[in-house]
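Long-time lurker. I teach an intro course on protein structure, and each term I like to show students one example going from raw sequence to a predicted 3D structure in token notation. This year I'd like something fresh instead of my usual example. Would anyone be willing to generate the tokens for the chain below so I can use it in lecture? Attribution to the forum is fine with me.
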Amino acid sequence: MDNLDKLTLVLLVCLVVVALIFPLSAGRHRDRPERPHDRSR
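-- Reply from a regular --
Happy to contribute to a lecture. Here you go:
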């Protein structure tokens, strides 16, 4: 049972992290347009 509990905990944490990161990344991408990659080359 311990293994199952740990797995569920990890899955829940991953889901929460993804849910928090996805909107942030989308908002940042919308706010700041992608810069041309001329500088990196």
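Some talking points for your students: Residues 18 and 31 are 20 Å apart (CA to CA). Residues 2-31 form the longest helix (30 residues).
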